[in-house]
């Protein structure tokens, strides 16, 4: 630390740090930078605020937190040996904690203390370690806030307010000499509980039932309820001070007695080392990469299929935002996946900026213009885009189907799915997988145990190993989503993911590209009116085939089925029968089956035989018999048709409904324009206005970069110089305080500033800005003219100009205080 005398306050300890150490503090606790503290004293004050300390404690690993908890129940200040004793115990062999465990604690404690010091939670030399007061208040025991260690208050705290007579009774029953001084009585009782030999003798005389009561309280919670007429074992303990009253019905086991029963340990199981991540299987790394690549390609195809299905405008947006349950089920059916998986793909497309609201009055989801650019990229680049968006997204699709704090259902694409911890948890999980040997699939439970050690929970849920907390759930979702997305293969991290984490998108895409199958330009037509695509198809072929046939099954090979409806769909899009025959002949490795040729010709022959137009709507056909057949069909009753002429019928429904109704009756009508031309209907390409991907919700302030840290440290140092500088006229006085401004006349101010500009010396000034805020600064005047002084401001670390009339006064600096 470079200090000649021990620091008396946290501010003094911080002032003694070098710039690199201060920058490390601001990096570890970026909330201290908003706004930049004016000096070291402000920095220390802010570092001790409750909100900042809570945030710092939440970022400690389990052993560092256990160290802080031990300091919270230790004397203040505490020597290093006392702290070590609270973690290792007093050496008594209780069969639980000896040998190698004590050695591990001794080896890990210096690093834990270093972490606590770097984060300004602990200060002082090893012989006088101090936990900052706010942290002590948060971690120290109280009836309203039990200590994480399970220890109760000290004898002095528990007996505060107890009558002297009651204290005398306890001393007499415990066999201690009487004293009329309450302080001496408390000291005597505390000495009894901390004396190993005398405490052992006292407990040897205790009834077995009394020892059972102590066993239930020793590891916490230390509070128990008693009746107005306690049982003899409880009365025996209460009479000897081993249970002290908190209220008329509550007693507590004092800390000194509990520590004796615990063999001096603050924690039942100290955890100096992180638990190891265990493997459930070791697989061939090449098999892992191949499996992950196959899943990566499937992920890209699934997102593309989702957005194609919403190409002409997706589902409507709920008034409260998001997808309705019915629309999510429909999407899951379209993608042939479960609803939670469908929610994941929808949220992934949204996070990647490929999907958004169209912003219309009747709001619907639709692909964004960025989707068209993304669809033209090679498959590996499309996957990198999705994976990068997933890593940074704070959207958590695993919450879909649950409820918020007010009991409202959480919907996919809804407004309440952001969880700021998600990106950090994902990176931590993947970092643990990356630390394993290639091809190693970890045990999820050991991954969760490691994450809980690295970022433990506070309170009982942490000690109980609760796996229902949000961070654990996000970790489990991360493992599942990684497999879906191709981040992992067969449970192990893939090589292209390691490259994405270590080297960036370009390297990841380069490793993934050889593993993705090349798109095919052919299919295998079969006599049962199906076509088999033995692999991924080139995009033009896939688009045309999806218009001509319906997907029947997916997998390693995709099976398409030709139906009258699918062929009619292709004809409606402007294709002719000759076009369809030529297309199939060009792209089939097998001869076009005769049944398929017949199907196309049959549908084409009937296609457009009926014509639908707007009257409200009408049906036109040169064959009167067909119109007679339609009128005679009971199913046409809902269309409310009537004959206008031998070859024309009028309907009371719109053309689209008329088309749909006649198609359901088995006909193949075609829509026509006002001029009588057949209308060609093509797949819509509805797009939203240009949209950016949703911005992840950060977890606390962002980590500052090196430039900002350097500027902040210089500003704090300069402000500290201004706040603690010694003036020549007060060289023997204490340092100036921030509320004490120098006062000089206008003439004295002008003369002093001019002299300083000529000699190049620094001055200490008081300054009041236009808003009336007063401050003190150290400046080096450069030029004085026109009622202004231009000077280098050491406080702001820049050149500034000040109106002389706003300077309350000036003073020269002592020779050893200039900077």
Features of the shown structure:
819 residues; alpha+beta; five-stranded mixed beta sheet; 34 helices; 25 strands
Description:
The structure is a single chain. This protein has 819 residues and is an alpha+beta fold. 45% of the residues lie in helices and 12% in strands. It contains 34 helices and 25 strands. Strands 18-19-17-16-20 form a 5-stranded mixed sheet, covered by helices on one side. Strands 24-23-22-21-25 form a 5-stranded antiparallel sheet. A hairpin with a 4-residue loop joins strand 14 and strand 15. The longest helix has 25 residues. It is elongated and about 120 Å long. The two termini are 22 Å apart.
* Low-pLDDT windows of residues: 458-468, 731-739
Structural class: alpha+beta
Morphology call: elongated
- Separation of the first and last Cα atoms: 22 Å
Report helical residue fraction. Answer: 40-55%
Q: Could you tell me the radius of gyration in angstroms?
A: 39 Å
Major beta sheet, strand line-up: 18-19-17-16-20
Mean of residue pLDDT values: 85
Work out the number of β strands.
Answer: 25
Largest sheet: 5 strands, mixed
Strand content: 5-15%
Count of alpha/pi helices: 34
Question: How are the elements arranged and paired?
Answer:
Blueprint: H1 10-15, H2 19-28, H3 40-47, H4 50-58, H5 62-73, H6 80-88, H7 100-118, E1 122-123, E2 130-131, H8 133-139, H9 155-158, H10 164-173, H11 182-194, H12 196-204, H13 208-217, E3 223-225, H14 232-239, E4 244-245, E5 250-252, H15 255-261, E6 279-282, H16 285-309, H17 325-335, H18 339-351, E7 355-357, E8 365-367, H19 369-375, H20 379-392, H21 422-434, E9 440-442, H22 444-454, H23 460-463, H24 470-485, E10 488-489, E11 492-493, H25 495-502, H26 505-512, E12 524-526, E13 530-533, H27 539-548, E14 550-553, E15 558-561, H28 564-572, H29 577-587, H30 594-606, E16 611-613, E17 617-620, H31 624-632, E18 642-645, E19 648-651, H32 655-664, E20 670-671, H33 706-724, H34 746-759, E21 763-768, E22 774-785, E23 788-793, E24 798-803, E25 807-812
Parallel strand pairs: 16-20
Antiparallel strand pairs: 1-2, 3-5, 4-5, 6-9, 7-8, 10-11, 12-13, 13-15, 14-15, 16-17, 17-19, 18-19, 21-22, 21-25, 22-23, 23-24
């Amino acid at each position: 630390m470079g200090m000649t005398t021990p620091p008396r306050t946290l501010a003094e300890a911080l002032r003694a740090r070098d710039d690199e150490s201060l920058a490390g503090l601001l990096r570890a606790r970026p909330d201290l930078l908003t706004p930049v503290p004016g000096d070291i004293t402000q920095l220390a004050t802010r570092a001790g605020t409750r909100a900042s300390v809570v945030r710092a404690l939440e970022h400690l690993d389990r052993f560092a937190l256990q160290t802080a908890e031990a300091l919270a129940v230790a004397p203040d200040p505490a020597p290093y040996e006392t702290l070590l004793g609270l973690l290792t115990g007093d050496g008594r062999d209780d069969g639980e904690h000896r040998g190698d465990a004590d050695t591990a604690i001794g080896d890990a404690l210096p690093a834990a203390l270093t972490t606590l010091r770097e984060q300004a939670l602990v200060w002082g030399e090893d012989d006088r370690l101090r936990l900052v007061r706010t942290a002590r208040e948060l971690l120290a025991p109280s009836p309203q806030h039990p200590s994480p260690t399970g220890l109760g208050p000290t004898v002095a705290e528990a007996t505060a307010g107890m009558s002297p007579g009651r204290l005398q009774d306890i001393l007499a029953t415990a066999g201690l000499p009487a004293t009329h001084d309450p302080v001496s009585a408390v000291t005597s009782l505390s000495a009894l509980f901390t004396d190993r030999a005398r405490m052992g003798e006292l407990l040897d005389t205790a009834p077995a039932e009394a020892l059972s009561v102590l066993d239930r309280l020793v590891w916490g919670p230390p509070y128990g309820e008693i009746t107005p007429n306690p049982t003899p074992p409880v009365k025996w303990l209460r009479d000897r001070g081993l249970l002290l009253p908190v209220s008329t019905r509550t007693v507590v086991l004092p800390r000194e007695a509990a520590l004796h029963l615990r063999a001096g340990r603050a924690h039942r199981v100290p955890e100096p080392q992180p638990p190891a991540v265990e493997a459930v299987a070791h697989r061939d790394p090449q098999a892992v990469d191949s499996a992950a690549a196959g899943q990566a390609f499937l992920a890209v195809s699934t997102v593309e299929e989702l957005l194609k299905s919403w190409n002409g405008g997706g589902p409507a947006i709920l008034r409260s935002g998001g997808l309705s349950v019915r629309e999510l089920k429909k999407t899951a059916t379209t993608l042939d996946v479960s609803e939670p998986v469908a929610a994941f793909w929808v949220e992934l497309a949204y996070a990647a900026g490929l999907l958004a609201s169209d912003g219309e009055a009747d709001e619907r989801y639709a692909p964004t213009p960025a989707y068209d650019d993304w669809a033209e990229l090679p498959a590996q680049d499309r996957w990198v885009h999705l994976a990068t968006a997933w890593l940074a997204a704070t959207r958590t699709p695993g919450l879909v189907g649950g409820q918020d704090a007010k009991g409202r259902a959480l919907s996919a694409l809804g407004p309440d799915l952001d969880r700021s911890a998600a990106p950090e948890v994902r990176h931590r999980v993947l970092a643990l997988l990356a630390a394993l040997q290639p091809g190693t699939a970890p045990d999820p439970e050991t991954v969760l145990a490691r994450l809980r050690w690295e970022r433990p929970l506070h309170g009982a849920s942490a000690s109980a190993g609760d796996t229902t907390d949000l961070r654990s759930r996000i970790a489990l979702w991360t493992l599942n989503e990684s497999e879906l997305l191709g981040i992992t293969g067969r449970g192990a991290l893939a090589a292209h993911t390691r490259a994405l984490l270590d080297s960036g998108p370009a390297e990841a895409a380069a490793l993934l590209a050889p593993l993705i199958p090349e798109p095919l330009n052919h299919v295998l037509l079969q006599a049962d009116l199906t076509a088999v695509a033995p692999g991924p198809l080139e995009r033009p072929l896939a688009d045309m085939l999806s218009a001509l046939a319906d997907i029947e099954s997916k997998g390693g090979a995709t099976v398409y089925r030709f139906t009258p409806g699918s062929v009619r769909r292709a004809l409606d899009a402007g294709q002719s029968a000759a076009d369809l025959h030529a297309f199939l002949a060009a792209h089939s490795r097998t001869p076009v089956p005769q049944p398929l040729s017949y199907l196309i010709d049959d549908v084409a022959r009937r296609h457009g035989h009926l014509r639908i137009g707007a009257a409200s709507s009408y049906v036109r056909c040169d064959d009167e018999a067909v119109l007679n057949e339609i009128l005679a069909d009971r199913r046409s009753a809902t269309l409310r048709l009537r004959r206008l002429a031998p070859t024309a019928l009028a309907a009371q429904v719109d053309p689209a409904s008329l088309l749909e109704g006649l198609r359901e009756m088995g006909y193949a009508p075609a829509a026509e324009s006002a001029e009588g031309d057949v209308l060609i209907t093509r797949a819509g390409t509805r797009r939203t206005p240009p949209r950016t991907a949703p911005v992840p919700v950060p977890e606390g302030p962002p980590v500052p970069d090196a430039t900002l840290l350097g500027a902040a440290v210089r500003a704090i140092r300069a402000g500290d110089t201004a706040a603690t500088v010694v003036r020549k006229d007060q060289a023997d006085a204490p340092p100036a305080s921030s509320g004490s401004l120098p006062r000089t006349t206008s003439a004295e101010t002008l003369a002093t500033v001019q002299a300083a500009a000529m000699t190049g010396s620094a001055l200490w000034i008081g300054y009041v800005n236009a808003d009336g805020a007063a401050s003190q600064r150290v400046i080096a005047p450069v030029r004085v003219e026109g009622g202004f002084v231009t000077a280098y401001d050491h406080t702001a670390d820049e050149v500034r100009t000040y109106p002389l009339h706003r300077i309350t006064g000036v003073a020269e600096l002592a020779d050893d205080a200039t900077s």
